[in-house]
User: Fold Aspartate carbamoyltransferase from Luteimonas chenhongjianii.
Amino acid sequence: MTVQEPCVASDVQLGDDGRLRHLLTLDGLPRPVLEALLDRAQEMADSGEINARLSGTAVCTLFFEPSTRTRLSFQRASQRLGADVLAFDASTSSTTKGETALDTFRTIEAMGVRGFVMRHACDGAVAELAAVAGPGTALVNAGDGRSAHPTQGLLDMLTLRQAKGRDFSGLKVAIVGDVRHSRVARSDLHALRILGAGEIRVCGPAALLPDDATLAGCTVTHDLDAALDGVDAVMMLRLQRERMAEGLVGSLEDYHLHYGLDMRRLRRAANDVVVLHPGPMNRGVEIDDAVADGPSSLILRQVGNGVVARMAVLEALLG
Amino acid sequence: MTVQEPCVASDVQLGDDGRLRHLLTLDGLPRPVLEALLDRAQEMADSGEINARLSGTAVCTLFFEPSTRTRLSFQRASQRLGADVLAFDASTSSTTKGETALDTFRTIEAMGVRGFVMRHACDGAVAELAAVAGPGTALVNAGDGRSAHPTQGLLDMLTLRQAKGRDFSGLKVAIVGDVRHSRVARSDLHALRILGAGEIRVCGPAALLPDDATLAGCTVTHDLDAALDGVDAVMMLRLQRERMAEGLVGSLEDYHLHYGLDMRRLRRAANDVVVLHPGPMNRGVEIDDAVADGPSSLILRQVGNGVVARMAVLEALLG
Amino acid sequence: MTVQEPCVASDVQLGDDGRLRHLLTLDGLPRPVLEALLDRAQEMADSGEINARLSGTAVCTLFFEPSTRTRLSFQRASQRLGADVLAFDASTSSTTKGETALDTFRTIEAMGVRGFVMRHACDGAVAELAAVAGPGTALVNAGDGRSAHPTQGLLDMLTLRQAKGRDFSGLKVAIVGDVRHSRVARSDLHALRILGAGEIRVCGPAALLPDDATLAGCTVTHDLDAALDGVDAVMMLRLQRERMAEGLVGSLEDYHLHYGLDMRRLRRAANDVVVLHPGPMNRGVEIDDAVADGPSSLILRQVGNGVVARMAVLEALLG
Assistant:
């Protein structure tokens, strides 16, 4: 996949009229656009809405990396809008060997499919296809490389708003774990900045924190206790087991000792602290059962919010 | 997956009001509940009914063991009730590695999915999840370990009723094959007892018959000719090829010689005997072509009854 | 799978009343039947029609060979007609090991599925099942062995008609590549003859051309320049990489040198030449980027026509 010059996701996703054409990243998204998506998602959550706005519209889940949760969540969102779903799992498809992602995309687009929910291991891969998509076609980035996972960012913000109200200016949030390799963390950071979060703390071992502009404006610490002190929300990240093989983390036990969230540590946070995790969880590694299943946990509410957040996005792009 | 104490499927599936909340086993099911499901399934078979009772409802096929026939049958049943189907195939999913079945279930439940059709290699696995399911969630056991496959039991009873009438009190039934490892046989035994079958004969090599209370009240024999003598119905079981590797069966030829149903042997049965098999068949091993495709065979009718039996169950649980 | 005598696809697919019951091959299809399918497909293409003619009808994609594009195209076609789709991928299914294709088909048919879209590696496999299908069941051949891929032939003819008009009598068409192993080429040849194409040229290396009656009436050449001279349409075929291993083709470079379509060569064709390819393309092997993405290429239009051609077929068989 090559285009003339590297495309900038935040430019590609907005039409000349300022309307959202694709959702590639939360980075650079105008605050009113972001808040309108959250408001609509909340409305759908409150009403349990099932409509037929996308009846006759086909949405393709185009996954070049395997995923089950995100794919199912988008599938359910599409169903609740009356859309027809087509699944293309490039990670198991043998027939498209040798075909480029661009040819695969163009082929399915030519079938009259209007919505694409795409995941890809390469940064910018979704934006590259969005840049060449036809005028009626919309792409949703369901995760590209380490860059962005914007609907996860949306559902996390929706979850925080439900717990803490719409005004984030007094909110202290800690993001803990492998921020370096996490598209979830990047989308959360984008969204928290847009919504004006009061303080963003980022915590993890040095080898798992980015050394670029990702953390601009954040309080960075390698000490979990310091990160948790008085925070209103903790956003835990999944530890990918390949970090061990890469030598970035010593052992699961070691990681848990320093960066695992347990009840004892959580007591440093505000009394009404809430805990989020994008799942799937490594229980006993980055998070203990007592926290994951405890009263502070919003982890299952995140999952439910994922469906309505994705409904709001699909409706905005295709409705 | 652990819960405080081992849950008893027959307790978990009935609400305090006696209403069926889940379908985990036919064991202990009140006869009127069982007969109501069969009556409704028959009504749907007669009318070819397609309705929209589950429109807007999501049903997830949650298979931790591979299956094609059962999954397709439940999918078709869901479609005929207007439900949206989500497929989760844990046997091929790589993304949920390390996630427990409980977390997978809770996650999909949190997406607003109300019906779960679950298959799992462990006895009691479906009941364990049913015990922790939310109030609006219903689980259907599509096969757990060797314990139960209740919708197969239902469709087999429906098929027998169509052929032999509703009164089973004079009915002589033979179940032949690997009863020890068969959840199908257990669910058939549960149902036949509840419906008051006149005589239940169980036949197979000693190594493939259970040595516990499963066969209480049955006539047990290792002689197929004796088992078939004058019976009204023969329920053949599939021979899993791994029994050879386990040393429980000598060879396919040997098994066929002693326990394969052929036309010569079938002549010992009643003139209007009917033959059932849950499929997929090992032709030439447990059953010969002439029997499988002959006038006594109800094997394809079983498949059709599977769809309406599952419709009746899903409608009762989710409608 | 065995039947008494080898069944002839063109006989099986037409009922005694001359009505199309299955679509197995374009070979021997009466011209009015073929043209009616093309006319209906064109009507659907023009209107973007989405209807509910197959509401409540189940269509099963029964693939014994992997395919993504064709399966998705049929799935979209089914959705646009309101049908319910069931997918059976025998190439990944482990549960039906040992079960014959006939038993698999009969089982799914017994679930009340009326339409089957089937792909199989063996010539005649779809026709064999069609010969034993029940009266309400229709099969569509989505590719069997090297024999036929009739909906590809239909969509190619639809694409040619849109570009060149309905009268093919003055049309010069070149089919280039591995005709010997190509069911696409055979279905195109059948259709072009029925529609009275003016001249059909077939071009490829000797090892990749058939030595039977397939090419009757065609101009055969091993020289691509000669094949292209003044032609109105070029139908390129995909080069399967296994031809190298089989020793039928020296190398990709060698194949490209002699049979790859580039802009320089394409200039030999008529000024308004159109280029077709069934996909997926081996870019830089049988076709260059400049041709594939150039103004003569109808390759993406073929994909769109595939959906409406398949809608027309499914509607004719099941509507």
Remarks:
- The interface with chain B takes residues 56, 58, 60, 84, 86, 88, 92-96, 98-100, 103-104, 106-108, 110-113 of chain C (CB under 8 Å).
- The radius of gyration of chain C is 19 Å.
- The first strand of chain C starts at residue 58 and ends at 63.
- Residues 9-150+304-318 of chain C form a domain with the Rossmann fold fold (CATH 3.40.50.1370).
